[in-house]
Design goal:
Blueprint (H helix, E strand, L loop, with lengths): L2 H32 L7 H10 L1 H28 L5 H38 L3 H39 L5 H20 L7 H19 L2 E5 L17 E5 L2
Antiparallel strand pairs: 1-2
Helix pairs in contact: 1-3, 1-7, 2-4, 3-4, 4-5, 5-6, 6-7
Length: about 250
């Protein structure tokens, strides 16, 4: 077993459980501060953002941290799932990174541009400014809700398909993964007509991933010998990555 794989076995459980903890933190902050942003009149929403600006910014920031740790999990899964499908997994990872970049940019805009527009609207509540803010909100929902959710869901479903094809990978985790990404894909389809519920959809998706990441952290992945290109062979040199439940 090479030193690189030993390092993966050492820090992977901590990464998976940290992702679960960070997602749970993001869920709590979203329930407390973000779900109210999607409801009420424009003036009420802007007033709420200005009154709770620090909490709102921290809540969106926790979303960025959650996205970053989830990307780390998918990078590790690229290494530990069946390497016969490595090219497919690499494609799925690039789709995920595209969605993650979209999500992070969305959160950064929510942390910087929207609070500034909210403050300006309360000071100078003109009709043109109101229309500008509404257009920004619609754009952000389509950006992160439609495009971002679709990228996450497609990538997650591709990873899930490889999980089912990976020997010794727990079927219950693969089935749970299929349910999560199917829900997210359905959310991507419906969010265009359910714009006020976009924060709820995001929060519920993060919540659904908490037990999945935690269970992933309870498994350790190990492998047998492989060549330097990552090709896997049957017989004397195994082509299987397998995981054993540690507790």
């Amino acid at each position: 077993m090479d030193s690189g794989h030993l390092r993966i076995r050492f820090w992977y459980p901590w990464l998976a459980k940290s992702a679960a903890a960070i997602n749970l933190t993001a869920v709590v902050l979203s329930f407390l501060f973000l779900v109210r942003i999607g409801h009420g009149s424009l003036g009420e929403r802007m007033s709420y953002i200005v009154s709770n600006e620090t909490a709102v910014i921290w809540s969106w920031g926790s979303g960025i941290l959650a996205t970053t740790t989830m990307t780390g999990i998918f990078c590790v899964l690229l290494l530990v799932l069946d390497q016969r499908y490595r090219a497919i997994l690499q494609m799925a990872l690039m789709i995920w990174i595209t969605g993650a970049a979209t999500g992070i940019l969305h959160d950064l805009i929510q942390m910087t541009v929207i609070p500034a527009l909210s403050q300006l609207f309360l000071q100078v509540p003109t009709e043109n400014l109101a229309q500008t803010i509404i257009q920004w909100e619609k754009l952000l929902v389509r950006w992160a809700g439609v495009f971002g959710f679709t990228c996450y869901a497609i990538s997650g479903l591709i990873y899930t398909a490889v999980m089912f094809r990976t020997n010794h990978f727990p079927d219950r985790l693969a089935r749970y993964s299929f349910g999560v990404w199917t829900f997210l894909l359905l959310s991507a389809v419906l969010v265009r007509w359910l714009t006020p519920f976009f924060p709820w959809m995001t929060t519920l998706s993060l919540l659904a991933l908490v037990p999945w990441f935690w269970q992933l952290g309870r498994y350790r992945f190990s492998r047998r010998k492989y060549d330097k290109w990552g090709s896997w062979f049957r017989g004397g040199i195994s082509n299987i990555l397998y995981c054993d439940e540690t507790g």
